[in-house]
């Protein structure tokens, strides 16, 4: 009984601290109407990583989510960016977020989730010839990102952060200031000093042993970046805080009840010999789990309708999984992961398997997104007011985008 009481006390203490000091906006003024009364802000968060299982799981989950929503809404060309109000991604997750939220020439997002998945796998196949990298520490994005300039430039062209169709957040660690740095569309729209080329942002959040030197569009802000996964492997808390403090774009968001959040995590890794790289991995995975635990506790035990975490529980066989390059094997593997029981993390008490599968949780989240779409169609009060860009710098990446994107939808990108 004492153990249960102590656990309850820990829950209450951490919930209070998190809700009061981590997420709550600094202003004491509250709007007369909260967004929860007319609709919830839809938040997408994608963990960082560089292995096949990391980003393939996230891309496959978003592909499944996108397909489900297309069927229910009757919009055959709806994109992930149409269905979320803000996206955060770290490392490879940041690249995926940028691909899904950067504006193309036609004003629509560059990629659907399925197109992004196919392009990333095809690029890995092209660079490696056969399968993924098989050396220790290798993975899907090692080959793609080792010399990122060419690949990222072809994908994003001259696009900058302000070319995102919705707010995006992508972290890195700035060696120049010895502090985390968060690339943000909201800041980029306000000043050229916070606007960076999208391809450089992706290179920065994926950098590992060599820092990426970059400057803002006006040359005033200099960043010497190493990977976002080092400092913010799970950017969910940053995304929540951004929404609750960004009153210009989310004027009615006052608390967690006004949010609808999905966090896509990475599969657990196989143990490796103790060393600097392994300790760094442990630290990164530990931070991601702690963020998940803190966010889940802050939302509370009844958070199923507001916060969803998708994370595989099996150990992939090392970093070398060449069979995944076959599309049928890839989808079969992803379906196996979705059928797994969901992993739940508990503060200071490890993890356990829930009774629900990842597929069940993802489908439940899709149903919540559909409810939000229906609510917004009926409401006259806009709950999201995205800052507009007078002269967007659209991507010049016609070679890739014209071959993988689909016809633009008439669906309004902002409700």
UniProtKB/TrEMBL annotation:
<feature type="domain" description="PNPLA">
    <location>
        <begin position="44"/>
        <end position="240"/>
    </location>
</feature>
<dbReference type="GO" id="GO:0016787">
    <property type="term" value="F:hydrolase activity"/>
</dbReference>
<dbReference type="GO" id="GO:0016042">
    <property type="term" value="P:lipid catabolic process"/>
</dbReference>
<comment type="similarity">
    <text>Belongs to the patatin family.</text>
</comment>
<protein>
    <recommendedName>
        <fullName>PNPLA domain-containing protein</fullName>
    </recommendedName>
</protein>
<keyword id="KW-0443">Lipid metabolism</keyword>
<keyword id="KW-0378">Hydrolase</keyword>
<dbReference type="Pfam" id="PF01734">
    <property type="entry name" value="Patatin"/>
</dbReference>
<dbReference type="InterPro" id="IPR002641">
    <property type="entry name" value="PNPLA_dom"/>
</dbReference>
<keyword id="KW-0442">Lipid degradation</keyword>
């Amino acid at each position: 009984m004492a153990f249960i009481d102590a656990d309850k006390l820990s829950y209450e203490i951490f919930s209070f601290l998190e809700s009061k000091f981590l997420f709550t906006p600094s202003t004491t003024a509250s709007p007369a109407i909260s967004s929860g009364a007319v609709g919830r802000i839809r938040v997408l968060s994608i963990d960082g990583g560089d292995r096949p299982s990391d980003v393939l799981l996230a891309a496959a989950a978003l592909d499944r989510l996108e397909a489900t929503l297309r069927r229910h809404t009757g919009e055959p060309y709806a994109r992930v960016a149409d269905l979320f109000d803000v996206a955060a991604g770290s490392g490879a997750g940041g690249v995926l977020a940028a691909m899904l939220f950067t504006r193309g020439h036609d004003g629509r997002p560059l990629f659907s989730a399925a197109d992004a998945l196919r392009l990333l796998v095809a690029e890995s196949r092209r660079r490696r010839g056969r399968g993924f990298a098989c050396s220790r520490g290798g993975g899907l994005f090692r080959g793609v990102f080792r010399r990122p300039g060419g690949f990222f430039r072809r994908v994003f062209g001259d696009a900058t952060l302000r070319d995102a169709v919705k707010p995006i957040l992508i972290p890195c660690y700035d060696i120049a200031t010895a502090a985390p740095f968060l690339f943000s569309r909201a800041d980029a729209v306000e000043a050229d000093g916070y606007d960076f080329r999208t391809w450089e942002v992706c290179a920065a959040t994926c950098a590992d042993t060599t820092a990426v030197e970059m400057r803002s569009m006006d040359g005033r802000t200099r960043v010497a970046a190493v990977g976002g996964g080092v400092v913010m492997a799970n950017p969910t808390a940053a995304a929540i805080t951004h929404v609750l403090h960004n009153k210009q774009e989310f004027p009615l968001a006052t608390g967690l009840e006004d949010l609808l959040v999905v966090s896509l995590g990475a599969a657990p890794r196989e143990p490796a010999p103790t060393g600097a790289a392994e300790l760094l991995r442990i630290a990164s995975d530990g931070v991601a789990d702690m963020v998940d635990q803190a966010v889940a506790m802050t939302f509370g035990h009844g958070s199923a309708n507001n916060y969803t975490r998708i994370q595989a529980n099996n150990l992939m066989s090392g970093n070398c999984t060449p069979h995944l390059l076959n599309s049928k094997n890839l989808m079969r593997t992803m379906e196996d992961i979705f059928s797994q029981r969901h992993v739940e993390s508990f503060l200071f008490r490890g993890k356990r398997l829930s009774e629900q599968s990842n597929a069940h949780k993802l489908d439940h989240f899709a149903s919540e997104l559909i409810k939000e779409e229906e609510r917004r169609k009926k409401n006259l009060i806009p709950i999201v007011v995205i800052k507009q860009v007078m002269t967007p710098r659209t991507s010049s990446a016609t070679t890739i985008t014209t071959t993988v994107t689909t016809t633009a939808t008439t669906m309004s990108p902002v409700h």
